[in-house]
């Protein structure tokens, strides 16, 4: 007799935030009961004006901030002290300024730094570094000093320093700041090719529309909108109310209607 098949268990979301509230020591309340769930492989833009709480939310994802109300889980693993090492491997944050992440003599050494610090050595370390650089189109720069690279190239190397840790979630803070049009396109090509969950914090609304099918708007420490990026950006009242602005003449509905 054939035993009954066991149905596969549903995969937990890459990110689950429930009732997250946080006040800084000076009494400023930055988050008020944020709820957010991001499925595996999603690309989501986090939008909102300055002071909305976006950075505070991001810093909770890998335990840099904590101690408030609510819960955060990454791939089902609670962001809590016993799990911080694994959570920080799973959540890779690419900062706005790549020079905050690049400090070694060569690109190869910068990308190797994280896994080497975690104990990886030998051929496996070399394989991981080469694969990460290949994914961002920077394999040919492995032996160059980072400061000899353009800003856009340094941004892609910074992405590689995170990808080499094989994260579940890639968080990008204002990824297009200071990038020229060619560098924007090159970075977009890299991000579209990745098989990880992406959370992109940005004021660049056209870039959010290009890369993220879904957007979440944060304002005054709460989620005020969550839905298809094309629909949210086509709502002038929503944008005006929360100090979000499209470039002059940019029509998100026309862009969304273009064939792939």
What are the main properties of this structure?
Rossmann fold, 10 helices, 6-stranded mixed sheet, alpha/beta, 2 domains, 260 residues
What report would you give on this structure?
- The structure is a single chain.
- It contains ten helices and ten strands.
- It is 35% helix and 23% strand.
- The strands form two sheets. A six-stranded mixed beta sheet has the order 6-7-8-3-9-10, with helices on both faces.
- It folds into two domains: 32-94 and 171-260, P-loop containing nucleotide triphosphate hydrolases (Rossmann fold, 3-Layer(aba) Sandwich), CATH 3.40.50.300; 100-166, no CATH class.
- 37% of the residues are buried.
- The longest helix is centred in the middle third of the chain and has 14 residues, at 122-135.
- Helix 3 (107-117) runs parallel beside helix 5.
- With 260 residues, the protein is α/β, with parallel strands linked by helices.
Indicate the topology.
Blueprint: E1 15-23, E2 29-38, E3 43-47, H1 54-61, E4 69-74, E5 77-78, H2 84-90, E6 91-94, H3 107-117, H4 122-135, H5 151-163, E7 169-173, H6 181-193, E8 197-201, H7 205-211, E9 214-219, E10 222-228, H8 229-233, H9 236-241, H10 252-257
Parallel strand pairs: 3-8, 3-9, 6-7, 7-8
Antiparallel strand pairs: 1-2, 1-4, 4-5, 9-10
Helix pairs in contact: 3-4, 3-5, 4-5, 5-6
